[in-house]
Design a protein that fits this description.
The chain contains five helices and four strands. By secondary structure, it is mainly alpha-helical.
Amino acid sequence: MDPADHLTAILTEGARVASLPAESLSAPVPTCPDWDVAGLVTHLGRTHRWACSYLVAGPDGDRRQVPKGPPAPEGEAVLSWYRDNLEALVAELGRHQPTDPAGSFVGTTDVAFWIRRQAHETTMHRWDAENAVDPGGAEPVGHDLAVDGIDEWLSFFVPRFLQLAGGPSADLVGTTLHLHATDDGDGAGSPGEWLVRV
């Protein structure tokens, strides 16, 4: 997937979050214990604003100096607040090229990093919310986006978590994990296969 595909996912998945039924906001989210749908929407809106703060600050700026914006309101107004944060993120992404340098929580990266990260954050939590509203009825994540999300997790987050933990435990060193997607989408995208070596 490329940044244009990721941006499409942000727009599509974010619009679905903003369109959640107001009467569902108190529903518990089984895949995010201790959250209801309103809490999940608030988290996602804050995450968009957090990502935006890095983009506004630039690769050498201090994102803590970027205005935070209004706090999340109570009740159904959280949905329009979320939409405002989504639109602000998309507008800020539109002010940059994917290859432009950007700050991040792991140091200097590029804008494409944030487009991809927000695409997967939005998609994952759209699914969480829809599953809370209609258990078992959430729209599945498309094959290519799911494969790309697994790739991001395995290539970025797993090494980061291992590093933060001081490295893998001795009994994991030298192990491998071979993963295969159980579908192939339309056959045109990634087959979804990984070999992880610790």
